[in-house]
UniProtKB/TrEMBL annotation:
Belongs to the peptidase A8 family. PROSITE patterns: SPASE_II. The chain crosses the membrane at residues 17-34, 75-94, 101-118, 138-159. This is Lipoprotein signal peptidase. It holds the Pfam family Peptidase_A8. The gene is lspA. Its main location: membrane. It comes from the Bacteria. It comes from Kroppenstedtia guangzhouensis.
Length: 176
């Protein structure tokens, strides 16, 4: 951290975004490792039933966005993802420790966004492999899971805010 041109090292208990960056990097690492295993050990479209008819590991590639929409628009996805990543980093730096649930949600989204971004840059497509056949859901990956969980936490936190604010201000007179 820099204050008046002096670089300071954060001390224990001081607000820092490093824990959120670490979580994002851990998600990125897990995502890339699992995708590497699928690419290295499986043929494309090969499926391994872990629970027949319910859950399979299926080697699949996605050149589009969620559910395959906007297929072959890699530069669009790369540019948008880079902007999202920068936005998340700026927002995390501004939040510091003021809203931990929002920061954790952003860390999950950041890790997932970086995982899929790395695939798009390196291979021009995203490796998917988690195949829930019982509910006929599109095949996805660890990065997608992190993004969905992060967005879910963000939505719950955001929807709870008005109620929390209302609870905190109950019985307080309006000074106007």
């Amino acid at each position: 951290m820099e204050e008046d041109g002096i670089t300071r090292i954060p001390v224990k208990g001081e607000p820092t975004i490093l824990r959120y960056i670490f979580v994002a990097l851990a998600i990125l690492g897990l995502d890339q490792w699992t995708k590497w295993l699928v690419v290295d050990k499986m043929d494309l479209y090969q499926t391994i039933p872990l629970w027949e008819g319910v859950f399979h590991i299926t080697s699949h590639r996605n050149r589009g966005a969620a559910f395959g929409i906007l297929e072959n628009q890699q530069w669009l996805f790369i540019v948008v993802t880079v902007l999202v990543v920068v936005g998340i980093l700026v927002y995390l730096a501004r939040l510091k420790e003021s809203q931990p649930p929002m920061s954790w949600s952003l860390a999950l989204i950041l890790g997932g966004a970086l995982g899929n971004l790395l695939d798009r840059i390196r291979m021009g497509e995203v490796v998917d492999f988690l195949d829930f056949r019982w509910i006929n859901y599109p095949i996805f990956n660890v990065a997608d899971s992190a993004i969905v969980i992060g967005v879910g936490i963000m939505l719950l936190y955001t929807l709870r805010q008005p109620q929390e604010k209302e609870r905190l201000t109950e019985g307080v007179e309006d000074p106007r």
